[in-house]
Design brief:
Elements (H helix, E strand, L loop, with lengths): L2 H8 L1 H8 L2 H8 L4 H28 L3 H28 L4 H6 L4 H16 L2 H25 L7 H6 L3 H20 L2 H27 L6
Helix pairs in contact: 2-11, 3-8, 4-5, 4-7, 4-8, 4-11, 7-8, 7-11, 8-10, 8-11
Length: 220
Amino acid sequence: MLFSTDAWTRNAPLYEAARTLAFNRELADGTLALPVFRHYMIQDAHYLVGFAQALALAAAKSDRPGHVVQFAAAAAAAIEVERTLHTDFFRRFGLSADAVAATPPTPAAHHYVCFLLASGFREPLAVHLAAMLPCFWIYREIGRDIHGRAGPDNPYRAWIDTYAGEEFSRAVDAMIAVTDAAAAEAGEAERALMHASFTRAAQLEWMFWDSAHRDAAWPV
């Protein structure tokens, strides 16, 4: 069995839990409160910078030129998405650059970024790829689900449409393929670490959306 097939099957309940979170339900039906969505966008901007750094670490760890190009291009794409937030969606939804800069990462965002960076520095490449895969894959599947349920008059339609495109889907498929290839060369112990990292990242995906909906901040 391919690693990706096995990992998705093992973590299907986590995906379903994320898909049915209040944040994603309300985003799909257009009832999500604007302050909640703003909070989410700010945290997403913080996260994307860290995710790009994690992808850059994958490029540095790889010894295959094609994979170096793939990971470096994905890192650049993550930064471009972060810039688009500033130039388009932040303005559209009433956020200033100063407000974004003044808002620190929440515990969930901070934890997720630190997990990915620690993975990049400490773990073998295969394990690091497994840690990053849920961000690609779960986001695509939930994005498709929301896109399929959202009406044309949804106030967040422009945002929703950005995650339903074929370009992003191709990037996800490429990440799945390279992770499966790495898993095929890994030993049993390393594959066990890959599964643990995939699950932890899937949990953090859930936490990120849940945290945004609750407007969770540092307790002290």
